[in-house]
Amino acid sequence: MQQPPTLEPVFVSDTGPYLVSASIEIKYLLKQLLEKGEIICLYPAGKREPFAISTLLSINDNELLFDASNDIVINAALTKDARMLLVGVVNKVKVQFELPNATLVAYEGRTAIRSSGPVQTLRMQRRDFYRLDIPMSQKVDCMIPLGDGRQTELLVTDISLGGLSLLGISPDLQMVVGNTLRNCQIQLLDVGVIEIDMQVCIVIDVTLRNGVKTQRIGCRFFDLPGKMQTLIQRFINKIERQRISRE
After folding, report:
1. What dotted CATH number matches 132-246?
2. Structural domain spans, the chain
3. Rounded distance between C-alpha atoms, residue 126 and residue 94, angstroms
């Protein structure tokens, strides 16, 4: 069983695959923390301690308000450099915000911490945890070379940073578990083209609702370069933002 994410901060050298900078998505994540009353942890920016267990009390324009710690030493540490780190979990995925202008304020007879809203955040999706189902309205195809100058085309039904699923049968390419598919190309809508090598991990015969018999093929990526990871994460973010905007 997948263990839930911890509320410890994560420091990575390459934030590209996890970066969220779209304001609509940042607002959605913060709104989820507020409306669900999620427990969060607050840290001095760039540090793992001290920390305060807290909740988000309110969102007002570009200002956030949090419960402060009962320990004045911890509160002083959190606001010392006016930069604070928020770590929480939204829909089973760890999110991490850096918050500027952190300061102590009085709120309803007690101490609270106020900060400005984040410009960007990190959504720490595990490669084996989060997989995006691609909507039927956003058709994405995978072009697989056949080795003789030709190529075959299969539909991509879901994708993550660890792999993808394909749907379809090619008369020129037999899918066998363990086989390697090299130099595949996928046009991720207007985000860009990824070029990947991948291994077939599972092949399942399926029957679609219209009665057509086909195959679902699960593949894992080989040594996915950072640039390709970034493009996939941007694609996932784009589809998720579209979904959020319709809710």
Report:
1. 2.40.10.220
2. 16-124, 132-246
3. 9
